[in-house]
Task: inverse folding
């Protein structure tokens, strides 16, 4: 997939990782505070459980993570010294409560749209398989 043509060339997964962790900070002008693991900078660390059928076996772990990893494969997340996820469990939010709230918000947005566009509600209902 990678070649020399500028129109079809794609960054490697290693280049994508560098862009995600270093170059974004440079582009925002905050690379003196974040973007790499150095003394005096805020550190964000994430670990991934590679012992899943989607990620192992592999010869290229980074490629496997980019192509096949899921959010559930993330074991630990530490941002600025605070645990956000530890051993697969969210530490800072009640996930069940957050998902229920998100569903209620989604329902309210859709209900409002259908209230304002009754014709679209009929079209949508006619396409439902149940």
Result:
């Amino acid at each position: 997939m990678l070649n020399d043509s500028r129109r079809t060339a794609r960054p490697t997964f290693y280049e994508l990782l560098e862009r995600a962790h270093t170059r974004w900070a440079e582009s925002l002008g905050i690379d003196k505070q974040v973007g790499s693991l150095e003394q005096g900078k805020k550190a964000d660390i994430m670990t991934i459980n590679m012992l899943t059928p989607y990620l192992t076996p592999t010869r290229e772990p980074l490629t496997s993570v980019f192509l096949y990893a899921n959010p559930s494969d993330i074991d630990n997340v530490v941002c600025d010294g605070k645990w956000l996820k530890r051993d697969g469990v969210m530490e800072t939010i009640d996930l069940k409560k957050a998902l229920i709230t998100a569903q209620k918000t989604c329902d309210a947005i859709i209900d409002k749209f259908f209230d304002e566009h009754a014709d679209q509600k009929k079209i949508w209902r006619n396409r439902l398989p149940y």
In short: The two ends are 42 Å apart (CA to CA). The chain has a mean pLDDT of 89.
